[in-house]
Amino acid sequence: MTDEVLAPAGVPRILAIDPDDHDDILDVVGVGEAPDPAELARAWGVDSLPVTEVTDDALLAFNDPAARAAGHPAGGGIATAADLARWYQALLHDDGTIVPAALRADVFEIIRQDHPDWLGVEAHRTYAFVLAGDDGKATLRGHGHGSSPAAFGHGGAKGQKAWADPATGLSFAYLTNGLERDDLVHARRGVALSSLAAALTRPPGDEPR
């Protein structure tokens, strides 16, 4: 992953970080409270959320220096928001060094997994990312108002957000070491931040959809 996907973009220090190089890494901590069932019901029509493998304990395990050094590509990346946004920017301008030409459509365009989640929102997943799509559900996939259907990215656990939009050339990342316990809070915050970022490329007077 580091040699083929990260280093060519100029951001090699994300996975398998040596224990002697952890001084500037913040521990992840839980913040906030579990969502109120009544508010969940008003917002999403359910009063509880399914328990998945992405628990607080699983995420807090990445505070262990050994886990950081092991390099877990599905959930152990450690980066600054600037580095992650720069990586997405590199994907927008990739000449085939990071993503070979034969794989580009599968990585950036073709939906390979579209099973609905517990809210009935289709996944819109390529082999690598979540596409915003043109079905009016982009915000439910973590993208912002104003993102193009081709915007691709992923919302990390408990409040992280990163994406790029080929239509505007914008890449965006928001990272925090605070693991938000309230799913409504981090969902709304992610959409708000993504929408504000998308507005940077919108002409004055052009309202988002």
**Major beta-sheet overview:** 4 strands, antiparallel
The CATH superfamily appears as DD-peptidase/beta-lactamase superfamily
The proportion of strand residues reads 5-15%
Count of discrete structural domains: 1
List low-confidence stretches. none
Shape: globular
Residue share in helices? 25-40%
- Reading the helices and strands in chain order gives HEHHHHHEEEEEH
How many individual β-strands? 6
Structural class by sheet pairing and helices: alpha+beta
Corresponding CATH architecture: 3-Layer(aba) Sandwich
- Please state the CA-atom Rg, rounded to the nearest Å: 17 Å
Describe the structure.
This protein has 209 residues and is α+β, with helices and mostly antiparallel strands. It has one domain (27-199): Beta-lactamase, CATH 3.40.710.10. The chain is built from 7 helices and 6 strands, in the order αβαααααβββββα. It has helices at 2-6, 37-44, 56-60, 65-70, 81-92, 104-108, 183-199; strands spanning 29-31, 130-131, 152-154, 161-165, 170-174, 178-180. It has a 4-stranded antiparallel sheet, sandwiched between helices. Strands 1-6 form a two-stranded parallel sheet. A hairpin with a 4-residue loop joins strand 4 and strand 5. The radius of gyration is 17 Å and the shape is globular. The model has no long low-confidence stretch (mean pLDDT 93).
SSE layout:
Elements: H1 2-6, E1 29-31, H2 37-44, H3 56-60, H4 65-70, H5 81-92, H6 104-108, E2 130-131, E3 152-154, E4 161-165, E5 170-174, E6 178-180, H7 183-199
Parallel strand pairs: 1-6
Antiparallel strand pairs: 2-3, 3-4, 4-5
